[in-house]
C-alpha cells in the first residue's frame, strides 16, 4: 500500500511538468565561440562536468 501511495504522489508532482532536464546540447546562442567540428555540437551528451 505504501508503494502505491508513493507512486501516486510522484505522479501528482510530475503531472504539471512542461519539460524535463537532460544533459544534451539542444542549441547555441548567437556567436557562441565553442561551436563547431572541434568544439561542441548539437546533440552532444555530457557525462561528467568537474566530477559530477
Fold and architecture overview:
With 52 residues, the chain is mostly helical. It has a domain at 19-52. It has one helix at 2-14. It is elongated. The mean pLDDT is 83.
The ordered H/E elements are H
Class based on secondary structure composition and strand pairing: mainly alpha
Percent range of helical residues: 25-40%
Spans with pLDDT under 50 lasting ≥5 residues? none
Note the gap between the termini. 35 Å
Mean pLDDT: 83
Choose one word for the global shape: elongated
Please tell me how large the radius of gyration is: 18 Å
Short description:
The protein contains one helix and no strands. With about 50 residues, the chain is an all-alpha fold.
What labels would you give this structure?
mainly alpha; 1 helix; elongated; 52 residues; 25% helix
Map the helices and strands.
Blueprint: H1 2-14
Amino acid at each position: 500500500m505504501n508503494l502505491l501511495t508513493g507512486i501516486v504522489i510522484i505522479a501528482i508532482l510530475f503531472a504539471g511538468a512542461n519539460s524535463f532536464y537532460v544533459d544534451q546540447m539542444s542549441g547555441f546562442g548567437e556567436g557562441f565561440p565553442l561551436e563547431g567540428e572541434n568544439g561542441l555540437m548539437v546533440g552532444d551528451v555530457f557525462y561528467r562536468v568537474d566530477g559530477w
